[in-house]
Amino acid sequence: MPEPATTSPVTVRVVPLAAGECLNLAALTMRGAAWRVQAYPAGFALLLHPSGPVLLDTGYGPQVPRLMRRWPGVLYGLITPVRLAAGGTAAAQLARMRLDVRSINTVIVSHLHADHVGDLRAFPAARFVLDGAAYPPLRGLRGLRAVRRAFLPELLPPDFESRCDPLPFASAPAWLAPFAEAADVFADGSVWAVRVPGHAPGMVALLVREAAAGEDGSEWTLLAADAAWNVRALREGGEVHPLARIAFFDVEQERRSRGQLRDWLARHPRARVIVSHDLPETRPVSL
Ligand SMILES: [Zn+2]
User: Fold this and answer.
1) Between β-strands 191-195 and 181-184, what pairing exists: parallel, antiparallel or unpaired?
2) Which residues surround ligand 1, an ion (CB under 5 A)?
3) Which domain covers residue 260, as residue numbers?
4) Residue 237 · residue 260 · CB < 8 Å
5) Number of domains present in the structure of the chain
């Protein structure tokens, strides 16, 4: 009798990167931390999918410091000052890896805050894949009302809307519980997006299968975007300072989303966790 065909699952390598950093008060990002200024990387990720390189977000781009020198961006810069070294943008870093910006056909956008979409204009061949709920509440916001949402519309390319593809959310497989819905981004089971709104409208986190084996989650990397300022807070349920909640789009949604991620992590304790503004965990995870 012939052996049943076995297909090994598609895996994707995650390369965590950062383009620039912002300064913030540590005490705002974690309850109980010191009242001192700390630098936080503007993380993004290169996903090496068999179909080609893909980005999750871009970090800051060259336009961000420029916009922060004039009204109303100057207000954004006062609240979270930005540092971006020459050659520190996503496009420049990819060029050093011999990846042309035109080879990036997909940028998955976790949410539309300026530190996540700061270099979108540098990728002219890319489609932007995001939750359909991310853009509508921000569309048309200008000036102070936009800055209030950490949104700088000038960062979006002029043809942004025609290049957006909504994530294909559907019923999630059981292992993704407590998430009832998820989007199988490449339709091959390698990258799943789950909705974690609250910090910003339509924010998504990704689960990326990096290795072929494991039932405790060790094959998965969770890219949790801004669901927490640091990995420990996400794993252990640490809270931000109440003042920092003012910046959330929806406080109740934020709490619920963070709880769902924590719940998933408790069921898959060996998954690697990456949040945008903290150093990425490395394998193996020490428990
Ligand atoms: Zn954010």
Assistant:
1) antiparallel
2) 113, 226
3) 13-274
4) no
5) 1
Q: Does residue 71 sit within a domain?
A: yes
Which pLDDT band holds residue 287 (cuts at 50, 70, 90)? very low
- For the stretch 13-52, pLDDT in tens is 999 999 999 888 877 777 777 788 888 999 999 999 999 9
| Residues 159-210: tens digit of each pLDDT | 999 999 999 999 999 999 999 999 999 999 999 999 999 999 999 999 999 9
DSSP helix/strand/coil, 122: helix
Q: 6: buried, middle or exposed (CB in 10 Å: 19+, 13-18, 0-12)?
A: exposed
How far is the C-alpha of 98 from the C-alpha of 176, rounded, in Å? 35
> How much distance in Å is there from the Cα of 232 to the middle of ligand 1?
18
Prior bond of 284 cis (ω within 30°):
yes
Q: How far is the CA of 200 from the centre of ligand 1 (A)?
A: 6
- Judge whether 5 lies within some domain: no
The CA 1 to ligand 1 mean position distance, Å, reads: 55
Residue 200 falls within a domain, yes or no? yes
Indicate which CATH number applies to the domain containing 180: 3.60.15.10
How many angstroms is it from 116 CA to the middle of ligand 1?
7
